[in-house]
Amino acid sequence: LLEGARRYFYSHDFTEMKTPKLLAKPTEGGAEVFTLDYFGKTASLAQSAQFYKQIMVGVFERVFEMGGTYRAEPSSTTRHMTEYTTIDCEMGFVTFDELREFAHGLLKSTIDFVWEECPNELKMWNATKPVLSDKAVSIPMAKVHELYEAETKEIIDDKKDLTPAEEKWICEYTKKNFGTEAVFVTEWPASSMKFYHKKTEGNEDMCDRSDFLFRGVEIMTCPMRENRYEVLLQQMKDQGIDSTEEGYQAYLTAFKYGLPPHGGFGWGMERTTQKIIGLNNVKEATLFPRDINRLAP
């Protein structure tokens, strides 16, 4: 999977980078962060390469990284781990539609590569090649709720997100009706966005975010970023984030002096591996899984 993805990135003029995993400030915020003493200061393990890849858009325009991601995720489920492999990507001078098309093409090309390179292993696992459309399929989140409730008669109370049952159902729906097992869910409420996400032009109650679902599970969040310095500062303020803190200074300086419109995503490798092969648990898709109960070997 990693080799197939790397080839796709290189064929689209991307530069591979390696960013620090010790951070002065949590990237994603919230409580799901591992902290440690760093010579008398409090540091955190990287929840993503978010800040660095956005900065590097101003240097190389298109960048990607393959590496470890660390989240103090308290969930003990078949979908969560505390350490996993992510492919982080960021693209400059891209539209929201172009970003989704690129991500869809990346998944499709990588799966084709895996089927070419690993036929014996895939046969041994009785893996079925995913059905994917030529172009990306996108459905607004409100439409997913509507379709799911009409089909199952189950009422979704919190419509700001999708339930795991809805994620599974909409992938089955798109396979049957659109010939694809991967779908983007769009039109997310701005109230749930990260401070660096971009609100939808003409409708600030929504943001330009999509979740890419594959065979019933989210494998990447795929949003546009806010590249205007003053707007970014205001969004930090609105979310109660102190933009003057040291951990944000280098990041914000890049925007102060100008970054192009850009967007990107973080792609979970173990979840994708799990779904390609047909494993029951994401922990079966990595060599030495880490979760709330495992710290060895």
Write the layout of secondary structure elements.
Layout: H1 2-11, E1 15-16, E2 22-23, E3 35-38, E4 41-45, H2 50-60, E5 62-70, E6 83-92, H3 96-117, H4 119-124, E7 138-140, H5 141-152, H6 164-178, E8 182-186, E9 188-189, E10 199-200, E11 203-207, E12 211-214, E13 217-221, H7 229-238, H8 246-256, E14 262-268, H9 269-277
Parallel strand pairs: 1-5, 7-8
Antiparallel strand pairs: 2-4, 3-4, 5-6, 6-14, 8-12, 9-11, 10-11, 12-13, 13-14
Q: β content, as a range? A: 15-25%
Figure out the total of helices.
Answer: 9
Quaternary: single chain
Shape call: globular
How would a crystallographer describe the biggest sheet?
A: 8 strands, mixed
Structural class determined from secondary elements:
alpha+beta
Helix content: 25-40%
Order of helices and strands: HEEEEHEEHHEHHEEEEEEHHEH
Overall pLDDT level: 95
| Uncertain runs | none
**Physical arrangement of strands within the biggest beta sheet:** 1-5-6-14-13-12-8-7
The number of E-state strands comes to 14
Rg over C-alpha atoms, rounded to the nearest angstrom: 19 Å
C-alpha termini separation: 24 Å
Describe this structure in words.
The chain is α+β, with helices and mostly antiparallel strands and 297 residues long. Helix content is 36%, strand content 22%. It has 9 helices and 14 strands. The protein has helices at 2-11, 50-60, 96-117, 119-124, 141-152, 164-178, 229-238, 246-256, 269-277, and strands spanning 15-16, 22-23, 35-38, 41-45, 62-70, 83-92, 138-140, 182-186, 188-189, 199-200, 203-207, 211-214, 217-221, 262-268. Strands 1-5-6-14-13-12-8-7 form an 8-stranded mixed sheet, sandwiched between helices. A 3-stranded antiparallel sheet has the order 2-4-3, with no helix packed on it. The protein is globular and about 50 Å long. The two termini are 24 Å apart. The model has no long low-confidence stretch (mean pLDDT 95).
